[in-house]
Write a structure and sequence with these properties.
Layout: H1 5-18, E1 25-29, E2 41-47, E3 65-71, E4 74-80, H2 96-104, E5 108-117, E6 127-135, H3 136-139, H4 166-178, E7 183-190, H5 199-207, E8 212-214, H6 218-226, E9 230-240, H7 253-281
Parallel strand pairs: 1-4, 1-5, 5-9, 6-7, 7-8
Antiparallel strand pairs: 2-3, 3-4, 5-8, 6-9
Helix pairs in contact: 1-2, 2-6, 4-7
The structure holds hypoxanthine.
């Protein structure tokens, strides 16, 4: 079943009934990054299962809450726990939260995720600003905009140049410089998951120009651009995803979560600086 306006409206109405917060900034918190929402003041915390139609995340490490409040001087709508394509939902449902954000007036989206580092200059613990993405499932037809287009939500054929707002990327680098924090930049490849990549698949992604790989973010970003939002994407590099790993090494979800936690203090500081800055800039 594809997502419709009626589904979005029901969820947005339910949220508007419980809070007067009218958010301008959307925030999606990836694996192990839930605690970034702890700094949100005067927060309304709404469990996603109480919101009509919300496709629930079933992944350990994803809390499944909507948090509405103020962060660094900005009104925010934060998702603690996102829905992934590999959980079995139709791709049009995966960015449900972004459509609800759109209905509530969000015009800027910051997306975070955990990703495997393909670029040999990266190290686990690095943070990467996403410059561009490769939507592998989307190229093969699993695009979140598949199906009838609602012109009130956005255009049939949205442009995908400068998806990741150049001003916000510059702002991220400036904030990282001020915080003395190492910040990488690169191309994020979205894969369907949930199995991690084979060495042959990683060679393909590397040859295609990917610097990092992950199982989220791109469906939400495509919908955010369809909705006309400005987008910033930040990846926490939790592990190296290279075709020639040290023999005997394996990736597991626990390692990804632990590395995600390690990056939380730095990513929190960076996000707060970026949010404060962009609130002034816009
Ligand atoms: N591959 C895909 N998704 C991921 C990875 C990875 O190596 N690490 C964190 N998310």
């Amino acid at each position: 079943m594809t997502l419709t306006r009626a589904h979005i409206d029901a969820a947005a109405d339910a949220l508007q009934a419980v809070t007067a917060v009218r958010p301008r900034l959307g925030l999606i918190l990836g694996s192990g990054l839930n605690s970034l929402a702890d700094g949100i003041e005067a927060a309304h915390v709404v469990p996603q299962e109480t919101i009509p139609g919300w496709p629930r995340s079933t992944v350990p490490g994803h809390a499944g809450r909507v948090v509405l409040g103020r962060l660094a001087g900005e009104t925010v709508f934060a998702l603690q726990g996102r829905t992934h394509y590999y959980e079995g939902y139709d791709i049009t449902w995966v960015p449900f939260g972004v459509r609800v954000m759109q209905r509530l007036g969000v015009d800027t989206l910051i997306v975070t995720n955990a990703a495997g580092g393909i670029n040999a200059d990266f190290r686990p613990g690095d943070i990467m600003v996403i410059r561009d993405h490769i939507n592998l499932p989307g190229l093969a037809g699993a695009n979140p905009l598949r199906g009838e287009n609602d012109p009130e939500l956005g255009p049939r054929f949205p442009d995908m140049i400068d998806v990741y707002d150049p001003d916000l990327r510059r702002l991220a680098h400036r904030a990282a410089g001020n915080l003395n924090l190492r910040l990488q930049e690169g191309v994020y490849a979205f894969v369907g998951g949930p199995s991690y990549e084979t060495p042959a698949e990683l060679r393909l992604l590397r040859a295609a120009g990917a610097d990092a790989v992950g199982m989220s973010t791109v469906p939400e970003v495509v919908v955010a651009r369809h909705a006309g939002m400005r987008v910033l994407g930040l990846s926490s590099i939790t592990n190296m995803a290279v075709p020639d790993p040290v023999p005997g090494t394996h990736i597991d979800h626990e390692e990804v979560l632990a590395a995600g936690r390690d990056v939380v203090p730095r990513l929190t500081a960076l996000l707060q600086a970026i949010i404060a800055d962009q609130a002034h800039a816009s």
